[in-house]
Amino acid sequence: MPKNLVIVESPAKAKTIENYLGKDYKVASSYGHIVDLPKKNMGIEIENNFKPIYKVSPDKKDVVKKLKELASKADTVWLASDEDREGEAIAWHLFNELKLDKSNTKRIVFNEITKKAIQNAIENPRDIDIDLVNAQQTRRVLDRLVGFEMSPVLWKKIKPGLSAGRVQSIAVRLIVEREQEILDFVPKNSFKVQAEFSTEKSENFSATLDTEFDTYEDTIQFLKTCAGANFHISAVEKKAGKRSPSAPFTTSTLQQEASRKLGFPVARTMRVAQQLYEQGFITYMRTDSVHLSQDALRDAKNVIHTEFGEKYSKQRNYTSKSKGAQEAHEAIRPTDFSVKLAGTDAAQQRLYDLIRKRTLASQMADAALERTVVDIENNNNPRIFKARGEVILFDGFLKLYQESSDDDTAENTSGFLPQLSKGQALEYLNITGTEKFTRQPPRYTEATLVRQLEELGIGRPSTYAPTISTIQKRDYVELYNSEGENRDIRTVALTQGNIEEKTIQEKYGSERKKLKPTDVGIVVNDFLVQHFQRIMDYQFTAQVEEEFDEIAEGNEDWIKVLDNFYERFHANILEVEENAERATGERLLGQEKSTGKNIYARIGRYGAMIQIGEADETEKPRFASLQPDQNIATITLEEALKLFDLPKKLGSHKEHDLIVNTGRYGPYVQWDKTYVSLPKGTDPNDVEFPFALKLLEEKLKQDAPIGNYENMPITKGKGRFGPFIKWNEMYINVGKKYDFDNLSQADLKELIEDKLRKEREKVVRVLEEEGIRIEKARWGRHNVIKGKTKIELAKEVDVQALKPAELVAMFDKPATKSRRKSK
Fold first, then answer.
1. Which ranges constitute the DSSP H helices of 532-669?
2. pLDDT score, position 256
């Protein structure tokens, strides 16, 4: 047994580090946190100075056992979890749970997995920073208090199953308020005038009138004055300009740029960055620092000199602008700038390339520009056209990298201009007035939401991705796509003295992967804003983050911070529980003509719905669920009444009714026990018998048996992972070596028997009496399966040594993150 035990968080980096340290070091993984607050109860002794009650997670018991065994045989234990607050807390929990001795336990940190960085960490150990631990504990405890006390209020006052959180609720508020701005938005029109001019040398260029007209009539009148006008250049102004590179990536700017340039969701960016870090290609990926080390500055300079030349190099030192910048001490950068391609798959390679180019560009020279503005006047009216041009004199950092923008409404008004001089006569080729409309405020993307949270000082690098993931999983927010709508645009054009009026079509409002609140999200937000003003206040939430920073610096007592928060918060909880009315987001749409009963759109136990009648009337109200593309705020009375036309019988087919209806997952056609979802965007009220029958026949054809095996039918289909066959409730992927459209009986037999063989080989242990089996899983792990519940165990767990009672007990405990439904 080696004399030194190094404990890291992730198994992916353990082997790399072990290779750097040599045979005297054993590197083991804790697989993240080994303890956590209990799932079933709050796990905080509020009267005992908010003492957290940490428990070893069920799936980590064997990990802890293994680490204790390794630690007992080592002369020195090195705690090498990540250098942020979460990492410091993991090190502290390891120290306590493994019952380590302070005399032979050392804490080391590094922000890159390179031989030099690891060896430097070993040479410079430190103690566990209890201030960082307390900052992490404060966040964990405060967020647990908020979640455990606010969520039950939502269950009572809105509907069961809801949750609230300190940062997640603020994120939802931002999205809801933006949606309200969109609903309140009224577009205004104006008329923009552009002209195409030509010089005596027949060199053409464009110019834009410096003012816009409010009315169509004013636009036509202006063009009439231009018909016989003489145009000339009244001024030419040239200015030197420059563009400077952006700072190296922080966590939030990486998330934003990866979204814009690569189309990555925030969670995917962090997952891929983690993989690059663990393979030693980039520095630590949770940071809000833009600083680069002296070694990094030197290495970047050498690469720039080699690849681009000395004139492209300019060393820069950046300072962080974000509130309470903390976490790691350096920006996200490559560990070796000379490596151009890194990663084991396309996603890793693309993200690495982005990080490398951004970092190198930050140390490159400015781009030198010449900007030209030309004023064009005429003898018939006082209006001025302006032509703008921009020439890059020296490309500088633009040779390698240019930052993208979130502003999809920006217009590029600069282009190429010929040589022009003051007093020069011009001829107009055409002058066109085009109607334009102001644009509604844009919905947030994941990236722009991260930027907004950071600007408000809410959350930290480690919280952005999980916050955005949580609000979507809770169905408070959804990713919204829209093809947009068409509208008429009036244009009027002057060409060779003739004016031509025309109406054209413009598509507007198209959106992709924008964050839009659900009806439940809106109702929950409105309730929280009304009754928990302090918690939902942006400034208060940012202030709490600053207090966490003060605790991390050792300037604030964490128990005092919690005490000050909880006293007012708990009193607020009690007051709301006692006095607040139920919230349904109820909106009166009108009355039913035949009965005079009120019709409401509101939130019910199962989501957004329409209600006809009152709950306290003798006759029970009638209910109908909203369709997926409808919401409480915008549904009309006519649309609501249509929902009660369903279910609708379309006709009969082979002795069974063909019915169209809508349900929890959208509209569908039903025939006997067969259900077929309607194509996206199809209004179920518009569906007629022939169309429904066609959908049914296609479904029946798809589901028809294509063969038999052991007297059981085989069907085929295509799913998210490609083509498959189904036999005996078992789904079997069909590889490319088979002709999926022409599978023979021999092919089917081979596919099923190969699958059965793999399933048998996967089973390592069966407890028939307990109804439990243990199967092999990916990466050397194992799954313990009982019924439809699956629990994943770490690869260190000796599954053969587990006693039946221990296995049964796993399923008696609350679900953990590793538990999920099996197929």
1. 538-552, 558-579, 637-643
2. 92
Examine residue 647 and say whether the peptide bond preceding it is cis (omega within 30 degrees of 0): yes
Confidence of residue 432 (pLDDT cuts 50, 70, 90): very high
β-pairing, 204-209 with 189-198?
A: antiparallel
- Give the type of residue at 231: F
Q: Which residues pair with 689 in a beta bridge?
A: none
What's 375's DSSP letter? E
Backbone angles phi, psi at 508, to 5 degrees: -135, 160
Long-range contacts of residues 622-628, Cβ cutoff 8 Å, at least 24 apart: 625/662, 625/663, 625/664, 626/519, 626/601, 627/662, 627/666, 627/667, 627/684, 628/665, 628/666
Answer positive or negative: Cα dihedral of 339, 256, 484, 506. Answer: negative
Q: What is the pTM of this model?
A: 0.79
Q: CA angle at residue 133 from 275 to 126, to 5 degrees?
A: 80
Nearest to 573 by CA among 164, 53, 167, 160: 164
Q: What is the pLDDT of residue 325?
A: 52
Query: Quick count: other Cβ atoms within 10 Å of Cβ 242?
Result: 12
**355-374 mean pLDDT:** 96
Strand partners, 709: 712
Q: Where are the alpha helices (DSSP H) in 308-368?
A: 346-361
Separation CA 295–CA 285 (nearest Å): 18
Name the percent of the chain lying above pLDDT 70.
96
Mean pLDDT over residues 228-242, rounded? 94
Lowest mean pLDDT of 108-122, 136-150, 603-617, name the range: 603-617
pLDDT number for residue 99? 95
Q: Are 477 and 446 in contact (CB under 8 A)?
A: no
d(CA 77, CA 748): 55
| Mean pLDDT score, 270-277 | 93
- Mean pLDDT within 153-169: 92
Question: With b meaning 16 or more CB within 10 Å and e meaning fewer, what string describes 149-170?
Answer: bbebbbeebbbeebbbbbbbbb
Q: Beta strands of 66-163 (E only): which ranges?
A: 76-79, 105-107
In order of 37, 135, 141, 552, the CA distances from 52 in angstroms are 7, 13, 7, 18
For 183, other C-beta atoms within 10 Å of its C-beta total 10
Q: What is the mean pLDDT of residues 500-527?
A: 94
d(CA 261, CA 357): 13
Place 414 in a pLDDT band, splitting at 50, 70 and 90.
low
Return the amino acid letter for 500: E
Quick check: 372 and 389 in contact, CB under 8 A?
Answer: yes
Amino acid present at 6: V
Q: Is the pLDDT of residue 463 over 90?
A: no
Q: Give residue 818's pLDDT.
A: 41
CB 819 within 8 A of CB 791: yes
DSSP state of 678: P
d(CA 751, CA 757): 10
pLDDT at residue number 819: 41
Q: Rounded to an integer, what is the distance from CA 187 to the centroid of its chain?
A: 29
Residues 79-105, mean pLDDT to the nearest whole number? 94
Residues tagged active-site = 284
SS3 assignment for 579-620: HCCCCCCCEEEEECCCCCCEEEEEEECCEEEEEECCCCCCCC
**Integer Cα distance of 424 and 430 in angstroms:** 18
Q: Are 315 and 297 in contact (CB under 8 A)?
A: yes
Provide the pLDDT for residue 421. Answer: 94
